[in-house]
């Protein structure tokens, strides 16, 4: 029987993150404020270039990573877990790393 991956709590992923892409880096904050119509949470851009995810307004945990969402709840980017505090979107060549608090 296959085992299912647990869904991380939003609290365990909230906070400051750094997005790295070919164009540079930007700082993001995964907030715990829920978006009203969708099962995701608000995303705040702090600084830097984030044009690769311009449409992203929210985020949500998934069993195998983190999904950034647009204003309609659709997926903008999926980041697969690649270590304890590191996630990658291989097709978009993006990396997401937790900023130590």
Please characterize this protein's 3D structure:
There is one protein chain. The protein has one domain: Lipocalin (Beta Barrel), CATH 2.40.128.10. Helix content is 4%, strand content 51%. It is built from 1 helix and 8 strands, in the order αββββββββ. The chain has one helix spanning 10-13; strands at residues 15-21, 24-34, 41-48, 58-62, 65-69, 75-81, 86-89, 94-98. Strands 1-2-3-4-5-6-7-8 form an 8-stranded antiparallel beta barrel. A hairpin with a 2-residue loop joins strand 4 and strand 5 (65-69). The mean pLDDT is 89.
Count of β-strands: 8
Specify the CATH class: Mainly Beta
Give the SSE order as H and E letters: HEEEEEEEE
> How many domains would you count in the coordinates?
1
CATH architecture assignment = Beta Barrel
Largest sheet: 8 strands, antiparallel, barrel
Beta-strand content bin = over 45%
Q: What is the terminal separation in angstroms? A: 39 Å
Tertiary shape: globular
Radius of gyration: 13 Å
Q: What is the oligomer described by this structure?
A: single chain
Q: What are the low-pLDDT stretches, counting only 5+ consecutive residues below 50?
A: none
Percent of residues in helices comes to under 10%
Q: Which structural class should the secondary elements be placed in?
A: mainly beta
Strand order of the largest sheet: 1-2-3-4-5-6-7-8
What would the average pLDDT be, to the nearest integer? 89
């Amino acid at each position: 029987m296959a085992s299912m991956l647990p869904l991380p709590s939003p609290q365990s992923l909230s906070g400051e993150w750094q997005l790295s892409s070919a164009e540079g880096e930007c700082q993001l904050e995964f907030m715990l404020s829920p978006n009203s119509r969708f099962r995701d949470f608000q995303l705040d851009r702090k600084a830097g270039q984030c044009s690769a995810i311009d449409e992203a307004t929210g985020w949500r945990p998934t069993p195998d990573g983190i999904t950034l969402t647009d204003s309609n709840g659709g997926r903008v980017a999926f980041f697969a877990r690649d270590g304890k505090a590191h996630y990658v979107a291989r097709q978009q060549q993006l990396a997401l790393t937790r900023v130590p608090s």
